[in-house]
Design goal:
The complex is a heterodimer of chains A (174) and B (181).
Chain A lengths: L5 H11 L7 H12 L8 H9 L6 H45 L6 H17 L6 H25 L17
Helix pairs in contact in A: 4-5
Chain B lengths: L2 H9 L3 H23 L2 H18 L9 H22 L10 H9 L8 H11 L5 H12 L4 H8 L3 H22 L1
Helix pairs in contact in B: 1-2, 2-3, 2-4, 2-6, 3-4, 4-8, 7-9, 8-9
Classes of the chains: A mainly alpha (174), B mainly alpha (181).
Chain lengths: 174, 181
């Protein structure tokens, strides 16, 4: 019988050696887990979650959402900066007003200045109101008309029927 | 269920059908991958990645061609990438003085039964000097018994290149066997 050459013998041996796949089930499960997030065996909770958030699988949706988030964040930051600037601006104006008051008397001590500053701030914050010039003029006009009507009424009804006018008129500090 | 029906179901997104497709082809895929990369864990990784590619690209399958050829192509491409990565990482040189290995080569006969590890060591040892292309052509041609045309289709090489690579591989392996006997 002719002896086979070593190369052919080795190839025949290797051909007959079928490598055995161990843990095929585990491999199957890993593959199934990779192709579907639920792996086909997920709970209802997981399936609902996957359904609701399945859009994350789409690149264009992810990019759009990321761009929208960046724009909204930018707008928020811009708004915050603007509001902060306006508040600072208002505070500066208030401080300027207070400074004008205590610069009026350079001989004032530092404690007095601080106290005055505090008082002015409180007054501005609590006891003052800002009225526009137009509203004030409208108020004066109404007052003058009312005053004229009152004089006509007084003349018509005769003396002593209406109470006397107040002697002191309220001062308007414009 | 026939393979073609299973594939049709997979195209419709049927995961159970895909599980069946894996069950039908996992052994074959592992055998090819293992013979090329000679390591169980790497072969399993390649099988896993190959089936994921199958699932992702199953709609692109050519109905006129055999599924096994398409799967061969995917596996071979992944093995080729791994072999090239190993080459860059300077894959550990097998121990030339390994007596048990020499015994395996000299005493090998078709009736002997080898473990996965022994088979892997043996193939790795005899094919150590082959380039990735030569090794793939050797495994497909000599161990898988595919024709030159099939190898050309799977690897994307032309037929002449397949023949040339196979001859080089045979010569180099023959020299290594001689050195161990």
């Amino acid at each position: 019988m002719k002896k086979k050459n070593p190369y052919s013998s080795l190839i025949d041996t290797l051909k007959r050696q079928e490598p055995v796949l161990q843990d095929r089930e585990g491999l199957e499960d890993r593959i199934m887990g990779r192709i579907s997030p639920s792996g086909g065996r997920g709970t209802l909770h997981e399936k609902v979650g996957n359904y609701v958030f399945s859009w994350v699988e789409y690149g264009w949706i992810r990019r759009t959402m990321a761009a929208a988030a960046a724009i909204l964040t930018g707008i928020f930051i811009f708004q915050q900066v603007t509001v902060t600037r306006r508040i600072n601006d208002l505070e500066e104006r208030l401080i300027t007003t207070a400074s004008e008051i205590h610069h009026a008397d350079p001989g004032m001590g530092i404690m007095q200045k601080a106290f005055l500053n505090l008082v002015v701030r409180d007054q501005v914050a609590g006891d003052s109101i800002t009225v526009s010039r137009a509203d004030m003029e409208e108020l004066l006009k109404s007052y003058m008309e009312l005053r004229a009507d009152y004089d006509i009424l007084k003349e018509y009804l005769g003396p002593g029927t209406l109470p006397e006018e107040p002697k002191e008129q309220p001062e308007l500090n414009l | 269920m026939e393979t073609i029906q299973v594939i049709q179901s997979c195209i419709r997104g049927d995961e159970k059908a895909f599980r069946q497709l894996i069950r039908q082809n996992a052994d074959f895929a592992f055998r090819v991958a293992f013979r090329i990369v000679n390591n169980e864990e790497d072969a399993k990784d390649i099988v896993q990645e190959s089936f994921i590619t199958v699932w992702e690209k199953i709609r692109e399958i050519d109905p006129g061609k055999k599924f096994s050829s398409w799967l061969y192509r995917i596996i071979v491409n992944k093995c080729y990438d791994m072999l090239r990565r190993r080459k860059r990482m300077r894959w550990v040189r097998p121990n030339e003085r390994n007596r048990s290995l020499a015994a395996l080569i000299s005493e090998s006969n078709p009736e002997s039964l080898l473990t996965n590890e022994e088979t892997g060591r043996l193939i790795r040892h005899i094919s150590y000097t082959l380039s990735p292309k030569q090794k793939i052509v050797f495994v497909l041609g000599e161990l898988e018994g595919l024709s030159h045309d099939d190898i050309a289709e799977i690897t994307g090489m032309n037929k002449t290149s397949v023949k040339s690579n196979l001859n080089h591989a045979r010569r180099k392996i023959g020299e290594r066997i001689k050195n161990h006997i």
